[in-house]
TrEMBL record:
InterPro entries: Amidohydro-rel, GlcNAc_6-P_deAcase, Metal-dep_hydrolase_composite, Metal_Hydrolase. GO terms for molecular function: metal ion binding; N-acetylglucosamine-6-phosphate deacetylase activity. Substrate binds at residues 141, 218-219, 226, 250, 306-308. Its cofactor is a divalent metal cation. It comes from Woeseia oceani. The active site is at 273 (proton donor/acceptor). PANTHER family: N-ACETYLGLUCOSAMINE-6-PHOSPHATE DEACETYLASE. Residues 53-370 form the Amidohydrolase-related domain. One of its GO terms (biological process) is N-acetylglucosamine catabolic process. This is N-acetylglucosamine-6-phosphate deacetylase. The keyword Metal-binding applies. Binds 1 divalent metal cation per subunit.
Length: 383
């Protein structure tokens, strides 16, 4: 179906327009045209009612949603449920994230995402392997007993991924620089996290091809005046990315603001680190046999350890704007254009331009998601 979206404010990922219409057809953006241009009978008119259209949001760290934890349900149907749970909060593209687990589970996760992409499950574009090549000292809620060293066989397994953009979080002090370079050269997006790496070890990994950092500040060596650690290296480096959780719990709002101000524009990415509770009425779940409860936007084990977040991406966007004093459009970029660039898909996603995939969201004055489009297919959301 050909659609003409009119009577809107249009944010194309760069600029905001009040006198433009968006043309969609065959799952793509056909063009952005002047509202004054004549109407074609080929296009169905959709009056947006003055609300904002923006690029669909992209979340690089989604452990679960809709009552489903990816580690526990490595199927196409489970991925469909997770993606649908996040779509109502503006995420039109996600990386299902596998927490540290066995090689068999890693293989099954890669296969499930590959099959989901082949089946064109709306919203599934790749995979994030968060582990198992991490440092037990900074395990967070991961199972240290499942962490292990990376070897050639592990690299070959990940290199063989056909699961779309593949992000791998590892502790660089536990992995040889040669293996990081090999992964990077094969197209794997390597981020550092769950790591005790020194500043010097982190710099060495960046030089080897590591491209970013997972949930900045959480589960990594902190920045101190005489020991910058991984956090210091992440903030100093101008070319790498970092993901950051804007729930007000994983990172204090003031620290969030400092980090965004310190980093090169375009390199700070919003992530949710979402758990099964997002988009679900069920606010308790088990993680490797440990009871977890969601409350106040965060997930906690019985001993008070943070175990992911209970927020959707549009909440992260709103929080980012509040915490760091960002205008809403820069906060939206942190959840769309910038993650698209980090994944190397910014020629398809993150903008509303001719030839791009028709992934977009409609937002009301309070930044609530009213509708979403994935490859041109529209869905209504209620709040």
């Amino acid at each position: 179906m050909k659609q003409r979206l009119t009577n809107c404010r249009l944010f194309d990922g760069e600029n905001v327009y009040r006198d433009k219409d968006l043309l969609l057809a065959n799952g793509q953006v056909v063009d952005v045209i002047d509202t004054a241009d004549g109407f074609s009978a080929d296009y169905v008119i959709d009056d947006i009612g003055g609300r904002l259209l923006a690029p669909g949001l992209i979340d690089l760290q989604v452990n679960g949603g809709g009552g489903v934890l990816f580690n526990d349900a490595l199927t196409v149907d489970a991925l469909r449920t997770i993606a649908a749970a996040h779509r109502q909060y503006g995420s039109t593209a996600i990386l299902p994230t596998l927490i540290t687990d066995s090689d068999d589970v890693v293989d099954a996760a890669l296969a499930a995402v590959t099959d989901a992409i082949a089946a064109k499950v709306p919203g599934i574009i790749g995979i994030h392997l968060e582990g198992p090549y991490l440092n037990p000292r900074y395990k967070g809620v991961h199972d240290a007993g499942r962490m292990r060293a990376m070897d050639d066989a592990a690299v070959a397994r990940i290199e063989a991924s056909r699961a779309g953009p593949t992000l791998l979080t590892l502790a660089p002090e536990t992995v040889a620089s040669e293996l990081i370079s090999r992964l990077s050269d094969s197209g794997i997006i390597v981020f550092g996290g769950h790591s005790a790496a020194t500043y010097e070890q982190t710099r060495q990994a960046l030089d080897a091809g590591m491209r970013g950092f997972t949930h900045l500040f959480n589960a990594m060596s902190p920045m101190q005046s005489r020991a910058p650690g991984m956090v210091g290296a992440a903030l100093e480096d101008r070319d790498s990315y970092f993901g950051i959780i804007a729930d007000g719990h994983h990172v204090h709002p003031a620290v969030f603001s400092i980090a965004v101000a310190a980093k090169t524009q375009g390199k700070a990415l919003l992530v949710t680190d979402a758990m099964p509770s997002v988009g679900s009425d069920r606010k308790t779940f088990d993680l490797f046999g440990v009871a977890v409860r969601a409350e106040g936007g965060r997930c906690l084990t019985v001993d008070g350890t943070l175990a992911g977040a209970d927020i959707g991406m549009i909440t992260a966007v709103k929080n980012a704007s509040t915490f760091a004093g960002l205008d809403r459009f820069e906060a939206l970029r942190m959840a769309s254009a910038y993650p698209a660039a980090a994944l190397g898909v910014d020629d398809q996603l993150g903008y509303l331009k001719a030839g791009y995939r028709a992934n977009l969201i409609e937002l009301d004055a309070d930044m609530n998601v009213c509708r979403s489009w994935i490859d041109g297919d529209v869905q209504i959301h209620s709040h």
